[in-house]
């Protein structure tokens, strides 16, 4: 991670922890240069990154201020940029993962294309229903290359796969490209999500990447529409 990215990450963490509150003015450039031991150019790049994330706003002649957004929005921004899974998103609830299917298959067609691997390579195919405080939220259909993410077992799937990747394999999850669309549930989704055939589903199609740029996951998460919200901040 580059120095300006480290500084931006540190300030973001301070905003999320409440050290910097909504509408608070951040320290002036000169103070930040002294605090972090860097040049003004580095501080400017860090501030620009925070502006792009929608966390701060620059006011001409006044300085840089924490944007007035609520905790849920800050949490969503954090999720978007740090990449958190279901278990961490609902860390205040009791998480249960029901393993519907778990097998090893060849990466054919779209799977190989999304993961940037050849069709003769093997991937895990994982289908899980995820519950928070016994309430069904989502069905996940996940493909991961075995060579890149070795050692996944049933016990791994009962918890957080992302925690296994970062804490056990010591790999760094960096980003995800997502497409969100509306749909209707399949028969198996009606069963596990406890909904009827006309209940709307929100599907999140995702390709996720490590900090090396390698795709480690291609998935489709099928959410109950009453348990899923997408929030976004647009910056001009």
State the shape: globular
Q: What is the mean pLDDT?
A: 88
Q: Report how far apart the termini are.
A: 26 Å
Give the CATH H-level superfamily of the largest domain.
Answer: Chorismate lyase-like
Low-confidence stretches: 71-82
Q: Give the amount of beta strand, in percent.
A: 25-35%
CATH architecture of the largest domain: 3-Layer(aba) Sandwich
- For the record, what CATH class of the largest domain applies? Alpha Beta
Question: What number of structural domains do the residues give?
Answer: 2
What share of the residues lie within helices?
A: 25-40%
Work out the radius of gyration.
20 Å
Examine the coordinates and then state which fold CATH places here, giving the name of the CATH topology of the largest domain. Answer: Chorismate lyase
* Main sheet makeup: 6 strands, antiparallel
Number of strands: 8
Q: Write out the strand line-up for the largest beta sheet, numbering strands in chain order.
A: 3-4-5-8-7-6
Following the backbone from N to C, one meets helices and strands in this order, namely: HHHEEHHEHEEHHEHEE
Number of contiguous helices: 9
What structural class is derived from the secondary structure elements? alpha+beta
GO molecular function: DNA binding; DNA-binding transcription factor activity
Keywords: DNA-binding, Repressor, Transcription, Transcription regulation
Pfam families: GntR, UTRA
Protein name: GntR family transcriptional regulator
């Amino acid at each position: 991670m580059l120095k300006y990215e480290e500084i931006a990450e540190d300030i973001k963490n301070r905003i999320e922890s409440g050290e910097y509150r909504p509408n608070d003015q951040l320290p002036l450039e000169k103070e930040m240069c002294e605090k972090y031991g860097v040049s003004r150019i580095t501080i400017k790049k860090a501030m620009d990154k925070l502006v792009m994330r929608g966390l701060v706003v620059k006011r001409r002649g006044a300085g840089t201020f924490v944007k007035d957004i609520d905790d849920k929005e800050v949490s969503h921004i954090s999720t978007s940029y740090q990449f958190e899974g279901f278990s961490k998103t609902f860390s205040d609830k009791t998480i249960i993962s029901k393993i519907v299917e778990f097998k090893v298959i060849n990466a054919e067609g779209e799977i190989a294309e999304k993961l940037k691997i050849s069709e003769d390579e093997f991937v895990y195919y994982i289908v899980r229903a995820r519950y928070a405080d016994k309430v069904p939220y989502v069905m996940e259909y996940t493909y991961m290359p075995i060579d890149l993410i070795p050692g996944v077992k049933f016990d791994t799937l009962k918890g957080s796969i992302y925690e296994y990747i970062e804490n056990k394999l010591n790999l760094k999850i960096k980003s995800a490209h997502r497409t969100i669309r509306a749909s209707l549930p399949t028969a198996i989704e009606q069963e596990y999500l406890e909904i009827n055939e006309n209940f709307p589903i929100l599907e999140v199609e995702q390709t996720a990447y490590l900090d090396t740029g390698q795709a480690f996951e291609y998935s489709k998460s099928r959410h109950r529409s009453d348990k899923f919200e997408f929030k976004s901040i647009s910056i001009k």
